[in-house]
Every structure is written in C-alpha cells, then in structure tokens.
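Hi there, hope your week has been kind to you so far. Thanks so much in advance, here it is:
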Amino acid sequence: MRFQVGFVRAEADGVAPPLAELVRAGEVRLKLHLVLAMMATKSPFELDDPPAAHWFAGLLDLPDPDINGARRVNEAMTWLHENGFIVRTRRKGKPPHIRVTHHGSVSAAGGRYVQAPISLWQEGFLLALSGRALALYLILREASGGSKTHSATLSGGRKAQYGLSEDTWGRAAGELERAGLLQVEEVFARASSKDEYGPKRRRRRYTLVSPEVLALGPVALRMINSSDGPSR
C-alpha cells in the first residue's frame, strides 16, 4: 500500500501532517483509519457496504465489542468524518457509505508515496503495536525512502516535519526496537547523505528491518530480537 508523502510529512511549516493528528487523536481513531485505508485501496476509495461497528471493534480487539467496543468505533468514525479523514454519508436502511480521503492506494499514479508493507495488516502488527509505533514505522519508511539499507539519519528540522513530540518519538522508537523492527545507533554523521558539506554531528541513525522480514509476524520477530539482538 502507498500513502501520499503529505499524509506522513508536513507540506507547510507549522502545520501538522494528518498522521500526527491521528496519533494525538488516539489509538482507536488511528488504527481504524488504517483499517479503512486497507479496505478501500482502489479509486474512488469507497466502502459501499462497510461492516458494522461491532465487526471493526472485534478486529481491533476492543473490549466488549458488541456494545462498548462498537460505541468507541462509532465515536471514532464520527471524529474521522468531522476532521476530514473520511466522508460518511448516512442512508436509510443501509450502513453509511464511506469514502476514505487520506487513502492508501495500491498503485502510485504520479507523485511521491510512502510504501507501507501489507504485512502490517496481514501479520497482525496492527494489533501488536501501539498507534504511535505504527505511525513512527510509516514515518521512517518515508525518511529512509530510496535507501538500500532502509536507514535514515535525521536533523532536528526534518524530524519536526513529522509532527511528533520528542517523548512520543522516543517511546515509539523503543517499542519498535523491542519488537525487532528497528535498530537505533548513535553515529557521527551529516543530517543527510545528500548534504555533502554540512557539519558532522552526533545523531541517531534509524534502520528498519527489510519489509520481507515482517512476514515472520510479531511473535517470531520479538523472539528473535530477545535472543539475538535487533534484526536487520
């Protein structure tokens, strides 16, 4: 799946990207949006007959999916609609029609995209990881785009474009490390490989595992990481 870069990274100074808005909005809203994006991957990115709220609640492993879980899903749907992430049109005798605005398309029809491995959904990482960890994974996919080593070394200014606080970034990175999806190293480097003349400083280098490794699933990756150290 491919998300537009503008979903992950701010396109203007002082404006939080949509993904950062979802992180601040809470885990249910973020994960529900990712599920909807996965379900509506072809233009016009619509769900004409979406499942009931209790189905989404069960998928997201919410407690009491038939009542309280369904209520939380409906509240999240309302928030996503009111904040422009989906367009939800009510209909008599049928579930509301849903159109996903910040969608994840199957193919890139021009422009720059962030590739999100389908294994995030298929192998259960959507449940195994927190919302902030999922968000940072997508951010680092964008930051390391084009790198054969899946690595990124970011300046403070570049990190600010993703809209996460230092606390959220640090906690999410730690979670991804424990899950075996990320290795963080202290290096002495320039902010970017394209910056040939900038000063070298002590920075953190973030290296994601190869997307193919996600097929092992979260349980196997965590076991490998705990016994042998972070996987690459």
Notes: The first strand starts at residue 2 and ends at 4.
